[in-house]
Design goal:
single chain; 219 residues; alpha/beta; Rossmann fold; 6 strands; PGM_Phosphatase; His_PPase_superfam; His_Pase_superF_clade-1; phosphatase activity
């Protein structure tokens, strides 16, 4: 029996002094702390003999995920070089992008972006669905389609996928409960954390889901 493990990594902390909801907007990069978070997680993966054989690295096309993936690639490729292996390169995929959100570009809770102004309240009538953007069902479906494709492409291997909080948690919740809907304030996906899902290559069954937070102490 062979198995494929996908390590879903959330990006590091973003530089966002105006506290905007950046969603899929361009030019939101990792902060200094975020870069250190990415490096901590990268070193965790590269130093662990169970994960430093990762065969491919994918990410969302957004700046913060590509920068996090870049740190992971650098650390893994240093190990690969010592083994005489070819360096890995980054592949981006739209299916693991951040969830769509109608509040993009707004400063939620303040000024014109406040939930109670300009009809914004109509977008948050249902915190469980959600009602302000892309549905959890759609998020989980695109993440699952991506995952199943990569499991077939990488039998018996491990890969890294750098994505975002909502897609990672929605997909994990779907795998664990059978439905992706969840209470958004109870997500367990810290910045630069690793949610690892192992799939049986023969049946496609999920064998295990584990979670680690290598950057928890980064300040």
């Amino acid at each position: 029996m062979t198995a494929t493990t996908i390590h879903f990594v959330r990006h590091g902390k973003v530089y966002n002094p105006d506290h905007l909801l950046y969603e899929r907007l361009p030019d939101f990069h990792l902060s200094e702390v975020g870069r250190r978070m990415a490096q901590a997680t990268a070193q965790y993966l590269a130093n662990n003999p169970q994960t430093n054989t990762i065969a491919a690295v994918y990410s969302s096309p957004l700046d913060r995920t590509r920068e996090t993936a870049g740190a992971i690639l650098e650390a893994l490729n240093n190990v690969r070089e010592t083994r005489g292996e070819k360096p890995l390169e980054l592949t981006t995929d739209e299916r693991v992008i951040e969830a769509g959100n109608e509040f993009r570009g707004k400063r939620i809770g303040h000024g014109e972006g406040a939930l109670w102004r300009n009809g914004n309240w109509k977008l948050v009538l249902n915190l469980y669905k959600p009602s302000w953007g892309e549905s959890y069902q759609h998020i989980a479906a695109r993440m699952d389609a991506f995952a199943r494709e990569k499991v077939a492409q990488h039998p018996g291997q491990q890969i890294v996928v750098v994505s975002h909080e909502s897609p990672i948690w929605s997909y994990r919740h779907y795998l664990e409960t059978g439905h992706p809907e969840h209470w958004m304030f109870l997500r367990h996906t810290a910045l630069a954390s690793v949610t690892s899902v192992t799939y049986d290559n023969e049946t496609g069954r999920v064998m295990s889901i584990t979670y680690v937070d290598p950057a928890a102490s980064v300040q």
